[in-house]
């Protein structure tokens, strides 16, 4: 299959690797972005209308607020193409309306796809064939974990948990670093120890030998230091704080629908 990616920003560039087993063509109106990518120069375009005739599927990876203007500039027929999107807030209904295509897949990847360890949830319209579903599942698996959703509305929940989730992790790293500094470690020592601990913990969970809860309980010896910290978290209503933050992200995702 020939894939055309419109938008060579961080997400569009990362998605090149998802389609490594297919011919990929890229379009961006900023030539400097295209020069950084490992794609044949013959497959680089500055205008969507120049790219679309050569591809079977079009992936839109532009900023959501730029999508309407972009579609106003495209004159090539898109209704017989498979339409893919990684744009937050642009629904499949809007994509169908703008492109006149019926086969539409909306994807919500997170930052990890840049390292091929991302988490991507996706939703396909009824017109998408089983072959096309298998294609997107296989492609997204090349850049991490992929999950098909049966309800498009659940993409808002994925945005709150997976899309925004890396920032929650980084927030915890910052907090642990500050706590370590307050205990007397130098800023360099604090950052190295705090961030290294979280990265190692992530590797342990990625091994899938145990769940997060199981790992926690293995470390949390009765009467020990870890138990003291966990009990402090519980007394501060840590779980409720996380749930409240996730709900705030969910609500904002719903508000941002164009």
Structural commentary:
This protein is of the alpha/beta class and 258 residues long. It is built from twelve helices and eight strands. It has an eight-stranded mixed beta sheet with strand order 3-2-1-4-5-6-7-8, sandwiched between helices. Helix 2 (31-35) links the parallel strand 2 and strand 3. Helix 7 packs across helix 12 (238-255) and helix 8 crosses helix 9 (187-206). The mean pLDDT is 93.
Q: What is the name of the CATH superfamily of the largest domain?
A: NAD(P)-binding Rossmann-like Domain
Residue runs with pLDDT of under 50 for 5 or more positions: none
Largest sheet entry: 8 strands, mixed
Q: Please give the number of β-strands.
A: 8
What's the total helix number? 12
Side by side, the strands of the main sheet go 3-2-1-4-5-6-7-8
Number of structurally distinct domains: 2
Secondary-structure element pattern, one letter each: EHEHEHEHEHEEHEHHHHHH
Name of the level-1 CATH class of the largest domain:
Alpha Beta
How would you state the average pLDDT, rounded?
93
The CATH architecture designation of the largest domain is 3-Layer(aba) Sandwich
């Amino acid at each position: 299959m020939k894939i055309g990616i419109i938008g060579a920003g961080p997400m569009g560039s990362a998605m090149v690797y998802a389609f490594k087993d297919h011919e990929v063509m890229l379009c961006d109106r900023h030539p400097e972005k295209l020069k950084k990518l490992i794609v044949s120069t013959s497959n680089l375009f500055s205008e969507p209308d120049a790219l679309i005739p050569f591809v079977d599927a079009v992936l839109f990876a532009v900023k959501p607020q730029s999508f309407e203007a972009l579609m106003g500039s495209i004159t090539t027929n898109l209704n017989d193409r498979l339409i893919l999107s990684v744009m937050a807030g642009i629904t499949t209904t809007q994509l169908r309306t703008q492109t006149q295509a019926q086969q539409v897949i909306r994807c919500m990847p997170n930052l990890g796809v840049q390292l091929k360890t991302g988490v991507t949830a996706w939703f396909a319209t009824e017109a998408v064939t089983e072959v096309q579903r298998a294609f997107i599942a296989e492609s997204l698996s090349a850049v991490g974990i992929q999950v098909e959703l049966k309800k498009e509305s659940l993409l808002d929940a994925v945005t709150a948990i997976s899309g925004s989730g890396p920032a929650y992790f980084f927030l915890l790293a910052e907090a642990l670093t500050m706590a370590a500094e307050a205990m007397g470690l130098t800023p360099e020592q604090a950052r190295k120890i705090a961030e290294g601990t979280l990265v190692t913990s992530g590797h342990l969970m990625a091994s899938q030998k145990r769940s997060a809860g199981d790992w926690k309980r293995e470390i949390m010896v009765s009467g020990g230091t870890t138990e003291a910290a966990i009990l402090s978290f519980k007394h501060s209503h840590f779980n409720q704080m996380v749930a409240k933050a996730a709900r705030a992200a969910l609500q904002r995702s719903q508000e941002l629908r164009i």
